[in-house]
Design brief:
heterotrimer; A alpha+beta (368); B mainly alpha (559); C alpha+beta (368); B: 559 residues; mainly alpha; MetI-like fold; 27 helices; C: Rossmann fold; 23% helix
């Protein structure tokens, strides 16, 4: 099982820098997800690891060996494409047997391996179909079988679920992870879908405009976002500008649009312009009488949306323009109504404080 | 085979072998195709003084040259206007409407391109011309014909053989239109006619422009058939043909002007179509609504199809009817020459088929690697440049190209002196003129082929040559076949360049022979030559149709 | 404001029956989402309502008027497409003004209205820009402005967010609803993404194989699905096969595989019925130590994933079946690690019972 390491990898296309000095390590048997918006350089990174693109600077190592000059067919990687890239002129079996044939194995071995791989993805009975005769989910499985039939143990997945219906993608992401883990592969999976990334990854690499912003487990990335961008990109946080009003040894008091909020943070001083972020599930919605946490704000419920068994509640802090986003369980006994006045409450440790980004908050949060 | 593939795999991996191979392909393109095609430019530069004394200083020569040039451009522009006006609706009908015999009509439309232009020209000549033996007017017992030899007849001919270029090119765009744009326009309140005018038409402008460019260059370069129908109205290529022995400097001047005109026009048109946005102008809701009704569109379709029937198909097929009239009794005075027998016809027909196959084979062998090289190895400006140069060799009018090649290879001053005008030069000319026809469809198929297939194959362990053989080649097969068909038919039907490269010889390819027979009949009133020519042309019509049907069958199977 | 009524609509494409008799009624000002797997006929239905394709049978009424045979341009509706379909040869402003211009309005008036309409976009967009210069989200905003510039009050949306990045898609869906509600429109929105539909619709229509499976408010579909397919399609759910072995007045005892038993409220079932028990993961409680009460089962955590705002567990029950559990995520909550023994509690009233499908469970819930 190979580890993969990129050291200072840079890639330019004309004047555009797709990857800017990217360093990153994926361990043996790890499932890594590179997450970022369109144009972040995710696919370029994957293609550089696969060897179908050459970096302008930097090193690519697979299992400690530098592979910069090794052509893709000798790297022992399997690249899995967004549109599956099944050869349209070959049957399913020929597609899967393509890799073994290219390795020059005897024909009966090629067929045997191909049939085994198809069996593994439960598609043996469709061996003689043409790719276009299969549903999206089936094509995805064939592509997986083909990628693995080469015997490669480094699997590179380029947006593998984006072409599928949402609900199928939701099912298949867990299947994909199980598959990779059962076969003991190392996987690098590229996507712009946060939910998908969180569901499959051991390690998430957040990429933005060609640079790595944060590397960590899904839990770390979600609960301890390193920058306002990560906070707003990974899950829908409430992110806003604030000014530090008071500081003590471990806490700060910040003010945003006339609202004062307590937060645990260090290294700031009074008058600093900062960015605050609060995760929606940290904000509890309480009625008048219920006991509150350190931060308690009177809010009006503006819009309730139902997402996956929970309620996403947009609230406005009464008397200001500050909006908060809260996520509460949809319990049978909870009845919220739009227009209702409630109290939003959250503890100071749930508020993240960041220095104000040099390029401005709008550009920092921009998804493009 | 396996070992050959292995060898080629190794070769494609070896940087040296790859460089040598790329060099060969590029050397062929530049040294054999491009530079000789444009040789007339350096050739003239070395002879500026002769050019001055022989042409510029002689007003009567100069004015004759300029007149021929103006005529050619006038005819070509008129042809473009007519063919775009007719070709766009025809293409629309062929893609969007359902009717009986659509397939048949679709096949017939290619006939004027596949058939040797001289045979087509003769048919059209007999259909429209003043009453003489075998003509339509004669058959109907009319005293006067519809058109006499001259500009209108030239126009009637050129409009026919240029039409398929416009139609094909527009069909390509129309069938790739994404219907959601039309859906969007319809749900925004535009009736079908307005939708066509404001949304579909602007999207197919590139197709119209490239069709118009092809029609223009084909029109300004046609020689053989034009010689049959032009009479006193001498166009530029006919002038080049007449002058290249009499006054080579005059021929050079016209050649240069012809190439330059075409290039300027083409680049101006492409630049314009890239920046020009078709304005909506004003919408007249009630009128356009009426034009969108089923009745109005049926009337439009009928008018267009009737025009096709009367102006394109009837004159093209007339040649099948002409020989049915009584064979001539009298034998006019005719030099006893082997050039007028059926064995000459058989020989030149075989020549034509051999040259077409050979030129296509060479084109494929070198064109495929060139297309791969441009599409997969080059990027940025270099790619645009080479892509443009391939297009340039399509744009150079074939008669100018033939003359240029003669100057390069032939015994003209400054030339290599390898070939005289005749069969050998004809072969060279055909290799050059068909080459871009093979490369272009392959190149555009490669550009349209998503590189993920190749990347997939590479990461699955295939070596570069194996990727090409097992993935790229099967996926671009339809384009390769299209290139082969285009190149073959282009060579088979080409008359203008062949007439110039043949010089005084008539027994080279079959279209040249037909020109010879018809000119002989026109000049000397030779009834037998006329009758034989009509039979030969009818045979060529049949053969061309059979070829078309065969190509369609093969293409259908490949797709 | 328009009402839309569809009665007995059928449509066949060659051998494929795309719609097999669809009835649907949409009220003034309602935001309706039509969801279903690929090929269920949802797009065909939308196109029939728009008049882009005629139905083989049945009637479509808009505002009480029969519109069969009325061309799309006369139906007074706006349509937005998945591929966005901005005319590439026109500027943003010309695109938005198009609908008015083709109705014969003069250029300056049309452009004035178009400029007004562009204000609905949440993103600032230059009216002179060409479509290819816009980001995905901006392009779709322009497309919607274009669809509405003619004064259409009925907005049809065909996978309007399908071409966008996952994260942009989430933000845009709330904007879409806001636009529709602010302008007082009726909207019919087709999507394969059930989460998108549930979060913005007033009413969701679930389709499958050319038929309507259920129509209802998002929470109703989620918590009270009428059939197994809807239950499975609108969100993750655990499905357990079993037999009713005992029943009292309002309770029954279900025996699952390997003799494991569950108590459920169960109207209209008899002893011996072959059933599927469906359990939403959000309703299950997970405990690290033993607790008392009804339906407490022992299990082992197979996987514990941190998702956006949610902890998702797969718990292996003692009978070898897997139960999904979801909890809201907070800093305070500790994640139970895989391989840990746990106890799960399933409230009896939250178990949904369905007849075991005659075609088998897998085929009944198949998404393809």
């Amino acid at each position: 099982m190979p580890s993969v390491e990129l050291v200072g990898v840079t890639k330019r296309f004309g004047r555009k820098t797709a990857l800017d000095n990217v360093s990153l390590r994926v361990e043996d048997g790890e499932y890594a997800v590179v997450l970022g918006p369109t144009g972040a350089g995710k696919t370029t990174l994957l293609r550089i690891v696969a060897g179908v693109l050459k970096p302008d600077a930097g090193e690519v190592r697979i299992g400690e060996a530098v592979v910069n000059d090794i052509p893709p067919d000798e790297r022992g990687v399997a690249l899995f494409f967004q549109n599956f890239a099944l050869f349209p002129h070959m049957t399913v079996l020929d597609n899967v047997a393509y890799g073994p044939r290219m390795r020059g194995l005897p024909e009966q071995d090629c067929i045997r391996i191909a049939r085994e791989m198809l069996d593994l993805v439960h598609l043996l009975e469709r061996a003689n179909s043409m790719p276009h005769e299969l549903s999206g989910g089936m094509q995805q499985r064939v592509a997986l079988a083909r990628a693995l039939a080469t015997g490669a143990n480094l699997l590179l997945l380029d947006e593998p679920l984006s072409q599928l219906d949402a609900r199928i993608g939701e099912e298949l992401r867990y299947e994909l992870r199980r598959f990779v883990k059962d076969l003991g592969l190392t996987a690098i999976h590229v996507t712009n879908d946060v939910d998908e990334a969180m569901a499959v990854a051991d390690k998430i690499v957040v990429l933005k405009r060609g640079s790595v912003i944060q590397v960590g487990s899904p839990e770390e990335v979600y609960l301890k976002p390193k920058t306002p961008f990560v906070a707003s990109f990974v899950g829908e946080a409430t992110v806003f500008e604030a000014i530090v009003r008071a500081v003590d040894s471990e806490r700060v008091r910040v003010e945003a649009m006339g609202v004062e909020i307590m937060a645990y943070a260090q290294g700031f001083s009074g008058g600093d312009l900062v960015v605050a972020a609060i995760r929606p599930e940290s904000i509890r919605l309480l009625r008048e009488a219920e006991p509150a946490l350190a931060n308690r704000l009177e809010v009006t419920v503006e819009r309730i949306s139902f997402i996956g068994g929970m309620l996403r509640v947009e609230c406005g802090v009464v008397g200001t323009d500050l909006k908060l986003l809260s996520l509460v369980p949809d319990e049978e006994n909870v009845e919220l109504a739009e227009g209702e006045k409630l109290f939003a409450s959250f503890s100071p440790e749930e508020v993240s404080i960041y220095p104000y980004p040099s390029e401005g908050l709008f550009r920092e949060l921009s998804l493009e | 085979m396996a070992s050959l593939s292995g060898l080629l795999d190794k070769a494609t991996r070896s940087a040296l072998a790859r460089k040598a191979f790329n060099f060969t392909v590029l050397a062929f393109f530049f040294g054999f195709v491009l530079i000789p095609s444009l040789w007339v430019f350096p050739h003239t530069l070395t002879r500026l003084d002769q050019m001055y004394t022989q042409v510029i200083a002689k007003p009567e020569v100069l004015s004759e040259a300029v007149t021929s040039l103006i005529r050619s451009v006038e005819i070509a522009l008129a042809v473009v206007v007519i063919d775009v006006a007719v070709g766009v609706p025809v293409a629309w009908i062929l893609v969007r409407r359902k009717f009986m015999g659509k397939e048949f009509l679709d096949t017939l439309l290619d006939l004027p391109v596949t058939m040797p232009t001289s045979a087509l020209g003769f048919s059209i000549y007999l259909f429209w011309a003043t009453p003489r033996k075998l003509s339509m007017a004669d058959l109907l017992g009319l005293k006067t014909g519809f058109l006499s030899e001259g500009p209108l007849l030239v126009l009637a001919l050129h409009a026919v053989f240029c039409l398929p270029y416009v139609v094909r090119s527009v069909i390509g765009m129309v069938s790739e239109l994404d219907p959601t744009y039309e859906y969007a326009a319809r749900t925004l309140g535009a009736p079908s006619f307005t939708t066509f005018r404001t949304v579909s038409l602007p999207s197919i402008v590139p197709g119209i422009v490239s069709g118009a460019i092809l029609a223009f260059t084909r029109s300004v370069s046609e020689t053989g058939a034009t010689m049959i129908v032009a009479g006193w109205y001498e166009t530029a290529p006919v002038y080049i043909k007449r002058m290249c022995d009499v006054n080579p400097d005059a021929a050079s001047l016209v050649t240069i002007s012809l190439i330059a005109t075409s290039l300027v026009l083409v680049f101006a048109l492409s630049a314009l179509s890239a920046y020009w946005r078709v304005p909506i102008v004003r919408v007249l809701p009630s009128l356009e609504r009426w034009l969108s009704t089923a009745k109005a569109s049926a009337v439009r379709d009928f008018v267009i199809l009737a025009f096709l029937a009367v102006v394109v198909f009837a004159p093209t097929f007339y040649i099948a009817v002409a020989p049915l009239q009584a064979p001539p009794q009298a034998q006019a005075q005719r030099p006893d020459s082997t050039e007028f027998g059926w064995d000459a016809f058989a020989e030149t027909l075989v020549n034509s088929l051999l040259i077409a196959s050979g030129a296509t084979a060479v084109g494929l062998l070198l064109g495929l690697p060139l297309a791969m090289y441009i599409s997969r190895r080059l990027s940025g400006r270099l790619k645009v440049l080479l892509d443009t140069l391939v297009n340039v060799s399509v744009i150079v009018p074939t008669s100018a190209l033939a003359y240029s090649l003669y100057l390069f290879w032939g015994d003209a001053p400054g030339g290599l002196g390898l070939f005289e005008k005749g069969l050998a030069l004809v072969v060279v000319v055909h290799m050059v003129l068909t080459f871009p026809y093979v490369v272009r469809p392959i190149l555009s198929a490669l550009e349209g082929l998503d590189p993920v297939y190749e990347e997939a194959a590479l990461t699955l362990g295939a070596k570069p040559y194996t990727v090409f053989r097992t993935v790229v080649l099967p996926l671009i097969r339809p384009a390769i076949l299209a290139g082969v068909v285009l190149s073959f038919t282009r060579s088979f039907s080409e008359t203008g360049a062949t007439v110039i490269a043949s010089g005084a010889q008539v027994r080279t390819t079959v279209p040249v022979l037909i020109v010879g027979w018809v000119k002989q009949a026109q000049k000397l009133g030779d009834q037998v030559a006329l009758y034989n020519a009509s039979i030969a042309c009818a045979l060529l019509l049949g053969l061309s149709y059979a070829m078309l049907v065969a190509f369609r069958l093969v293409m259908g199977r490949v797709k | 404001m328009p009402r839309v009524e569809v009665i007995g609509v059928r449509k066949r494409f060659g051998d494929v029956e795309a719609l097999r008799g669809v009835d649907l009624s949409i009220e003034d000002g309602e935001y309706v989402c039509i969801i279903g797997p690929s090929g269920c006929g949802k797009t065909t239905l939308l196109r029939i309502i728009a008049g882009l394709i005629p139905p083989d049978e049945g009637h479509v009424y808009i505002d009480g008027k029969l519109v069969n045979g009325v061309p799309p341009e006369d139906r007074g509706l706006g349509f937005a497409f998945q591929n966005i379909a901005l005319f590439p040869h026109m500027s943003v402003l010309d695109n938005v003004a198009y609908g008015l211009r083709v109705r014969g309005k003069d250029a300056s008036f049309s452009k004035k209205v178009a400029r007004e309409m562009l204000r609905i976009s949440p993103i600032e967009i230059s009216p002179k820009a060409l479509p290819r210069e816009l980001s995905g989200g901006a392009a779709q905003a322009v497309a919607i402005a274009r669809a509405l510039a003619t004064g259409a009050k009925l907005l049809l949306l065909d996978e309007p967010l399908g071409a966008l990045d996952a994260r942009v898609r989430v933000s845009m869906r709330y904007e879409l609803r806001r636009i529709v509600k602010d302008l007082g429109l009726t909207a019919i929105h087709v999507t394969h993404n059930q989460a998108e539909a549930m979060s913005i619709a007033d009413k969701v229509v679930v389709m499958r194989s050319g038929r309507v499976m259920q129509v209802g408010a998002p929470r109703e579909l989620f918590w009270q699905p009428q059939n197994l397919f809807v239950a499975y399609f609108v969100g993750e759910i655990t499905l357990l096969e079993g037999y009713i072995v005992e029943r009292s007045e309002d309770r029954c005892l279900i025996e699952l595989r390997e003799g494991l038993q569950l108590v459920s409220t169960c109207p209209e079932r008899a002893r011996g019925d072959h059933v599927v028990a469906a359990i939403r993961p959000e309703r299950v409680k997970l405990y690290a130590s033993e607790v008392g009460g009804e339906n407490v089962l022992r299990g082992k955590v197979l996987s514990a994933r941190v998702l956006t705002g949610v902890l998702r567990y797969e718990v292996l029950l003692e009978n070898g079946e897997t139960l999904l559990v979801k909890e809201i995520l907070t800093h305070a909550k500790r994640r139970v690690l895989p391989e840990t023994s746990v106890w799960v509690q399933i409230p009896p009233q939250s178990i949904l019972l369905f007849d075991y499908p005659s075609i088998g469970l897998m085929r009944e819930i198949s998404l393809e």
